[in-house]
User: Fold this.
Amino acid sequence: DTGVSQNPRHKITKRGQNVTFRCDPISEHNRLYWYRQTLGQGPEFLTYFQNEAQLEKSRLLSDRFSAERPKGSFSTLEIQRTEQGDSAMYLCASSLAGQGVVDEAFFGQGTRLTVV
Amino acid sequence: AQSVSQHNHHVILSEAASLELGCNYSYGGTVNLFWYVQYPGQHLQLLLKYFSGDPLVKGIKGFEAEFIKSKFSFNLRKPSVQWSDTAEYFCAVNAPTSGTYKYIFGTGTRLKVLA
Assistant:
């Protein structure tokens, strides 16, 4: 399967614990996005990278959230001191695009986080 | 700031009925527009996209959408729905001239097609 891969698919954690999710984009894609989706809502933008540079982070994103994309390949999203409100589906997407150019984003299956 | 509105949150249709889902966006510059579909238990998949040119774009599975710049709209249509079209549909906009390459999604429309 050469699509966007996310691990784990499901994560249950206790409130206050830290969690880390991984995303492996389609190999030649230079842009990588993280979104959060809750029931009945559309994907909410969290952050995106172009190669290894994090170009934008949502102003709604708590400083408990951090993302990295070392070497411009896979990315990790870490949530520190999880809260029940963090329970959601976390989606990763990637795209291949140049300066001023946009193409479709390809999405992974997501990681479902449940904070108990 | 950019935003996307999808006014139909839930739609129920019988097979063979025609479908139109509304999508409006709020950005006055050049936009790239997308419709994604999410079938139960599956990831988001692209139905169709508009970048420029002919404002009537055709996508997969018989879907089409019309970009009307004056109305800031990009409505999705299908002449005759099938039971297998039961899914959630999301409209999205990307406006690189606004200084960002993020995709902004609407809240989605949940479509149920009755056999």
About this structure: The mean pLDDT of chain A is 94. Chain A touches chain B at residues 4, 31, 33, 35, 40-45, 48, 50, 55-56, 91, 93, 97, 100-102, 104-110 (CB under 8 Å). The two ends of chain A are 33 Å apart (CA to CA).
